[in-house]
């Protein structure tokens, strides 16, 4: 998906770091936004034939350009600017996939997408993930060391084929066997991928029933601000209902159709003619807004993204006080879904309204500085064409001391998730959708 020639990649070498505003996005701005992703998708629609040719050329030169495209000119050393990297958390969305869902009037509703299947990684997605593994190897080579050691590195995904496969591909690029770990002709070694059953997921999707979350979401949707946005989008809802045969009643329904079209487009099938008037432009704003609406405020984030953040805080604190087990654990890889990324970054208040595209990556780096202070740096990589850019957590510096970060996020870390969720036993919690 993201390939370019050497001369194109130079413009990204001096990519400026960005500071993300902590202000809650105004619904009107989100619905009216035309982010870079809009133009990039539109370009794909307007020049699909040229893009197919470009992809073929890019595949032929990928080995030559890999070092430049993946940003191999930057190596993160263990000691950097008077601080030492102590722990790494990588949180990602899975790679490019085939459609996971459809709609009644979808011309591809009976397509098996053989031999890939529904909701599975495409070849483009597989290559991208493998290259991301190479990127991690380059960026963190000194920190990770040459050999895979299970006490040092832990990988987890949701219990979904495409996320498990994503971890395997990243690991293949990140941990090629060296010397004593070489077991045969393949430059590959098996590395465990951990997961929880979907209905018990309490980390990357948080799918266990939580009445408090849905009660708060209902309250947000009933507010005057959000109801006005529903009214503004009603014509779009009605149009999509008529065209697709799917009842489109809210922003989540728009996101569902958008995601299907995005996946079909990524698989290089020709989208139906009606999409020219709606996809991506008219559907992009409501799709982005659906992600924000599902992580609207601290109370909602506390019960979603706050669960993963609490786990990460536990890792940081046990690393700092020397109680982590195994004692040498230093790196975690988590691969989930679009909501995994949005929920965590909304919880940290560093989410700039955008489409969480395939393979979007958050890097959380724990350092110890020369004074013995532990602190965190946050990076976002939303394109494989650029280096990760540093984010600033509101109220803190780019290097955010751990104790300060703990105070800044205390309102979004659940004390007892089960007790906080079970506020009304009579509330009928809706069945989770997806992934």
TrEMBL record:
Catalytic activity: a phosphate monoester + H2O = an alcohol + phosphate
Family annotation (PANTHER family): ACID PHOSPHATASE-RELATED, GH28721P-RELATED
Signal peptide: none
Full protein name: Uncharacterized protein
Keyword presence, ATP-binding: no
Region (Disordered): 12-34
GO molecular function: acid phosphatase activity
Pfam families, sorted: His_Phos_2
Organism field: Rhynchophorus ferrugineus
Stretches that traverse the bilayer: 51-72
Keywords: Membrane, Transmembrane, Transmembrane helix
Annotated InterPro entries: Acid_Pase_AS, His_Pase_clade-2, His_PPase_superfam, Histidine_acid_phosphatase
Similarity comment text for this entry: Belongs to the histidine acid phosphatase family.
UniProt cross-references to CDD domains, sorted A to Z: HP_HAP_like (cd07061)
């Amino acid at each position: 998906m993201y390939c370019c020639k050497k001369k194109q990649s130079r413009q990204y070498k001096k990519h400026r770091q960005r500071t993300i505003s902590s202000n809650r996005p105004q619904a009107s701005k989100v619905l009216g936004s035309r982010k870079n992703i809009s133009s990039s998708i539109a370009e794909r629609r307007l020049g699909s034939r040229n893009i197919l040719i470009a992809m073929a050329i890019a595949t032929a030169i990928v080995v030559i350009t890999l070092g430049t495209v993946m940003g191999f000119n930057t190596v993160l050393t263990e000691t950097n600017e008077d601080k030492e990297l102590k722990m790494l958390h990588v949180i990602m969305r899975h790679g490019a996939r085939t459609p996971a869902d459809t709609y009644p009037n979808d011309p591809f509703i009976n397509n098996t997408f053989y031999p890939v299947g529904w909701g599975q990684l495409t070849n483009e997605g597989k290559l991208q993930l493998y290259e991301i593994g190479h990127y991690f190897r380059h960026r963190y080579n000194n920190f990770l060391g040459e050999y895979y050691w299970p006490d040092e590195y832990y990988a987890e995904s949701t219990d979904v084929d495409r996320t498990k496969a994503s971890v395997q591909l990243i690991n293949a690029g990140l941990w090629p066997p060296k010397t004593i770990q070489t077991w045969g002709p393949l430059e590959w070694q098996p590395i465990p991928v951990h997961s929880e059953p979907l209905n018990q997921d309490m980390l990357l999707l948080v799918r266990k029933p939580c009445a408090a979350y849905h009660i708060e979401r209902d309250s947000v949707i009933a507010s005057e601000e959000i109801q006005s946005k529903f009214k503004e989008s009603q014509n779009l809802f009605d149009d999509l209902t008529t065209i697709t045969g799917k009842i489109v009643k809210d922003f989540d329904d728009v996101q569902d159709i958008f995601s299907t079209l995005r996946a079909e487009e990524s698989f290089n099938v020709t989208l139906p003619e009606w999409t020219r008037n709606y996809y991506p432009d008219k559907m992009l704003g409501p799709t982005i807004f659906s992600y924000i609406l599902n992580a609207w405020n601290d109370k909602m984030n506390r019960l979603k993204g706050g669960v993963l953040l609490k786990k990460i805080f536990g890792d940081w604190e046990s690393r700092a006080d020397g109680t982590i087990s195994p004692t040498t654990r230093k790196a975690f890889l988590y691969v989930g879904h679009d909501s995994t990324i949005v929920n965590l970054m909304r919880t940290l208040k560093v989410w700039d309204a955008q489409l969480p595209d395939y393979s979007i990556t958050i890097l959380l780096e724990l350092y110890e500085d020369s004074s013995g202070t532990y602190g965190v740096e946050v990076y976002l990589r939303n394109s494989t064409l650029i280096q990760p850019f540093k984010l600033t957590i509101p109220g803190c510096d780019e290097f955010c001391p751990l104790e300060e970060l703990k105070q800044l996020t205390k309102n979004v870390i659940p004390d007892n998730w089960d007790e906080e969720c079970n506020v009304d036993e009579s509330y009928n919690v809706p069945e989770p959708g997806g992934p």
